[in-house]
Amino acid sequence: MSPQPLFVAATTSYAVNCALGASVAAGVVDTRRFRWVHHALYIATCTLAGAAAASAVLPALRPAGPAAAAAARHAALALAPAAVPLVVIPRVSARTARHPLVALTAAPFLVAGLMLSRR
Hints:
mainly alpha
């Protein structure tokens, strides 16, 4: 099985969550009645990113062939640093300027993992 769909799903979930957060911050969308959507997207992003990173080591998800396995390993290693901002973000108040800055620090690692998973 190719791990690429997991990288695509993790990156997509992250992008949708960032778009929702930016829309709320800009006042375009009001999520007071359904704030749980932002939290559900965060949980989905963390779960999918973890599964994508684990795809390099779990036998059921690891692709067949040494070249494909090496590519999956490189993608997982590129994605791994995204865990730090994903762990920190719940501890940063959403009402501060630090919240989006911390959230955006995961972007380069998610994109790098996605690009490397496409090889």
